[in-house]
Every structure is written in C-alpha cells, then in structure tokens.
Design goal:
By secondary structure, the protein is mainly α. Helix content is about 80%, strand content about 0%. It has one domain. The two termini are about 30 Å apart.
C-alpha cells in the first residue's frame, strides 16, 4: 500500500485501522441495536462543547487512562510473566467500572477498552496505538454523536 513505510509501521497502522473498525462497530451496536431492542437511549454529554472539554476528554483522559488501565498493568504482567489477556480483562472491567455508571459503563467502556487493549498487545505494547484509538473513541462519542 505505502511501500515507503517500513513494514513494522504499516502493520501497526493496519492494526489501528482494524481497531477503529471494531470500535465503530461496537459504537453502532450500542447506539442502534440496544436502542431498538431495549428502548435504551444513548445520551451524550450535556456539557457545552468547549476547548477545555476537548483537552480533558481527548488529550488528558487518553494519556492518563491508557497509562493507568492498559500500559502499566500489561507491562507489569509481561515482567511477571502473567497472562496478558487475563490482566487485560480485569483492567477493562475496572476501566469500565471507573466510569461510574455501573454495568452500563462496564459494557460500553469496558468492551471499548478491551478492543483498544487488543490493538495495544497486537502492536507489541504500543502506548501510542492505544492513545490514538482512545482519542478517536472519545472524539466520536463526545463530539461527533
């Protein structure tokens, strides 16, 4: 596709693209199928879209949350030779629960975080890959829907 890019970079970009498709599919399921099946209405933030909200949700949150919920735990799991997928599932449960809406947050953010985590692992613990996907997820959910 882009012969001037090194194979390693092309592979990481491909994995990020697959992650984007998976997150978009998950977002479609949440916002459309659940609404149809259960009458559940997704409500976006009622806050005014400001530069501060953008910085906090699309810059600070991805940097902090990816470090705390994926990069840190998975790097530690690697050093301790623990199963990274079990650690990822636990960290995604905590990630979803930490968003404060109980089982709904675990379902939405937890599954989204799991997808991001899979790309992170597939891209050989690439923190930048996880931040990129998290940025795109927050941008879409908060500003584009």
């Amino acid at each position: 596709m882009f012969p001037w890019l090194k194979k390693k970079v092309r592979t990481k970009l491909k994995n990020i693209a697959v992650g984007i498709v998976a997150l978009a599919t998950w977002l479609f399921i949440i916002t459309h199928v659940f609404t149809f099946l259960f009458g559940w209405e997704y409500s976006s933030y009622s806050q005014k879209h400001t530069l501060g909200l953008f910085v906090m949700s699309c810059v600070v949150a991805p940097l902090w949350e990816e470090a705390a919920y994926r990069h840190g735990p998975l790097k530690l799991a690697k050093q301790l030779k623990l199963n990274p997928y079990l650690v990822l599932m636990l960290s995604c449960f905590l990630f979803g629960w930490g968003h404060g809406n109980g089982s709904v947050s675990i379902l939405i953010q937890g599954v989204g975080g799991f997808i991001i985590g899979l790309v992170y692992l597939e891209n050989k613990y690439s923190y930048l890959s996880a931040i990129t996907l998290h940025f795109l997820w927050n941008l879409t959910v908060i500003f584009l829907i």
